[in-house]
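Supplementary material to the annual report.
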Amino acid sequence: MQQKKEFLKLLSAYAPTSQNKASYDEHVSKFAKRLGVDEIKIDNNLLENLFEKFILNPKPIIISGSAGDGKTYLLRKLFSEMSGDNRSWSNDYIPKLEFNGKNITFIKDFTEIEKSDKIKTLINLYKSIYEDANELYIIASNDGILTDTLRYALEEYPNFRGLLDLIEESIDNAGESKELILLDLSQTSSSKNFELLLKEILVACDRYESDCPSLHSDEIFCPIHANIEMLKKEHIQKQLISIVRSCDLNYQHITLRKLFMLISNMILGYKGKNRIFKSCEKGIEYFKKMNNKSDASFYHNIFGDNLPKSKHEQSPFRELRELRIGYETSNYIDDFILYGDIESRELYHQELDNIFFDFQTFFKQRESYLENGDVKMIKDSLILLRRHLFFNYNHKIQWGSITIDAKDLIAYKHADKFYKNVISILRNQPKVSNTTIKELALGLNRLFLGELLSKDGNKRLYIATSLTGTHSKLSSEIIEDIGFNKRGSNQGIELKLLNGFDNEYCKIMLNIRYDSKIIASLELDLHMFEFLERISEGILPTSFSVEYYERVLTFKSQIVNYLLKNQDLEESFFNLFTLNDKEGTLQFNEILVEGDGYVYEG
Amino acid sequence: MFTKASELKSYKIRTPFLQELIWFHRIKSDQDRELLALEFLNVCASHAFEGQLFDKTLKRVRYNKAIQVRNILYNFPELESIVNSSKDESEKWEQIEQLLKEKLEIPYDYSYLKERFSSVDIFYHSVSLLKNASLGMDNSRRWTSKFLFPFSFETLFVDMNNKKENFDIDRRFFSRGGEILYMMISRAKNVDRLKGLMVDIFQNSEENRRWNNIYRVFQGEEKSIESETLLGFLGIESHEVFDRLVNDLITLFRSNIAHNDFFYYFSSITSFYMVHYILTIAQEHQNSTNKIIYPIELLAPKSDHVRRASRQIYKINEDSPIEALKIALNNYFLTLKDITDKDVLLKKLNSELNYSNEIEEDNEEIELSAIKNRIWKKIYLKVKNELIPIHRVLLKGVGLASVKKTNSYRYLASDEWLKTLVLINIDSRMPFNDFVDKLYNKYGFIISNRHLELLRDSYAENDFKKNEDRLFDRLKALGLLENKSDGYAYVINRYGRVK
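Predicted assembly:
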């Protein structure tokens, strides 16, 4: 009899339960073999990328990143690619090979080797960079350990200073230096990995688990296959990828191991004692008795609602929960969910029906809410339906005169705009549109001035400060204004895209140009972009993000400091301003002091 | 120590010495962080104008009173209505000059004002400008306790009482704490380097030239400078705490920030060191060479072992001067037990401890312990009122002590304090763990579970680990920490150093 191939058991080994068997590369292969299925693998082009770079310019390689990002795995593939022997890889403590006339030593995991070997490796790495170009090192390492070891060895080996600086700079720049290739896996795209991984897992589910009874009978409900069906839909995948991308855009990299955990939990999770189902049988059995199918919906699983609270505060659930999907909403959306069936029954069921949700129960909850003010049950239903609306989003919903848009259902309302108007543009062109710059300028102006400047205040950037310090929230004086519309000008606001190792991951910097050089930079992650856009729309700074407000004030402080130290101080003057509250415009009041002690108005 | 008692006699102190000999004379609890820094800068200005900044041999100072200018800025509420009235320019000027003249006993002449300002409006805007750049405007203190922001040595003046006749310098807010601070700094090893930096910032600043210029416009003929006053008393000629304070100040003043941004940070770190000195000396007098420790909480959601340790040590630290005084007094009285002659004894008590009391004269017998108790009472009262509260007043002012979420004070690090620590202790970047280690090794700040060895009681290590994690999160939230991946977390100073 053919062995029952238990793919879901393999998948469950990646789930965030205490029996997380999939922590180690070696164990997974054996486990998969035992279950009769192939390992789950993805090809995100990093190997090709890395190998190509190496061929073009053979330099030492450091692969760094967090645990679970696939450093050692990547190193193993590289070893194979250079025709290394698999057995030698497994058996040798420090495998070596010869390639293209160079002797290459592989450090599988810098963290795991003996301390003396660590120092030896660093000495040899140093030599291979600064002295002999025929001996090369390829090292997989957790960043911290590498730089820490270098730092602690500085006393004995002061020449390590150069190497330490080089490595730190390479991590910052994610680009290339002349002396080494540094691939920091935490600066690669999680969303791309997610996309590839999800597809791979869905394909495997089809391949190995098509004998689930629910697929042959409408009466049987399998929570696992219910999730699989939904996850196969293209528009749902699109939404999923975009939310993982939001994490990337906030420099919150989700490691490969965590992505495995996420998808495994999405498909197999349920709010119950064991947290996940390891097989369809168990899932089907469970829901024969219970009624609440939504307990197993990926809408909840993706946020780890089925897991203990401690997991909520860890990756990947922490980053995804910050998006507040299910909690962000608008009055219109909730109105639609609560009462939309009254006038627009067809549209209502078209947009809201889903396999996890029982509307009969919901309408009873609604009655209870309207008559007794009973909120608890209906709250949970609202969360599920809001999530449904978000993940099923295909196009705006027109409900009478009201438009329902996905961006109202997520904490980052401008995520789409950031991706389309900034990132996608800068990938192909050197500049973003003037409209985008003006929106950002208005946000910055309101923060710099500490005033609700009118919407017209987006043509110049006002560098404002208080009289006694550069970091304050309220300003009294404008010491300079910077224009940004003119061509060929030596000043302006510029957005610059810095590419990561692959072409997916990138960083955006907002630079201030003055006197033809960049005098200050602000890291523009998604959160900062959202913050500036919302200020531009009229919110108060502290109502969204105290932390990002601090960053903007520090940024302003740096600009002011530059101007104060480099200004031409022939005259003494004070350029004070107040805001005309009615019109939101600036009124200036200039006081000039002549050298001989005469004060007059500017 | 008691050899210096004769010097102390010049201060007309009416209570027994001991606190002054051990620490200094003096600081009082109305002198907060800002006032401490202002008084200090006033001393700096006085000596700097004679080219003798931080000359430790100088024992006197001349404070600037600037009465004529201050009368205009802080004693002239009627100005606004004059400006808004419908009179013509010359009438307004007349009214202004007249009112200003009448306010003070000394009839200053203000007729120069109309020559120097193009209009009454401009005069009014200029006055508002300086008032907006002043300290102490939002409290209800007298007008003579409002100060212009210390843009430079020129724009400083001393605290006075507002009695019409004399405008004496008043020791309520400028209680000499700033003078002591000045003397500590002058006696440090590295002070010459600091001198150069402070002269650049406070005497030769290009950035603040315009403030000097506008301030001068307001000055009349009066050069009201207080005649020379004796500086406070600091018995110790040199100390490691002085050196460390100056080193931190040098690092601070080398930061690449605007000149006016220094004031907050520098007032914070000097206030901390003032308290730290008090505790260090107290510790030395208890024959202990232990490090002074401060278990510091990063605000926890509920009370835990960190808070408990912090509260406990806070109380111990706060009361340590009392312990030190007790021991010192006991030791002193041990040296007296062989004296049999009452007159000799009383003379010694007077000259060394500044103690005299009719009761003693009347008594036939020498009752050492009774005398000691009477002296102790006075000493205890004085230290309770003057020195003990400083721990709370100054540390609260810098953001290191708080009652938030609990009902007694403990060490709690505020955002502002964290920013100060980062600015001073990190040149450009430092691994997070190294930073936490540095804070312990250098200042005695216990934040992490790695540094619990000096705590006598045992506390849950886990609570301290969580405390360290909260520091991590807080630094990240302030934009002071970058965390790329496992263990690669750096605390960052985005400003860097200049010189």
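Chain A is about 45% helix and 15% strand.
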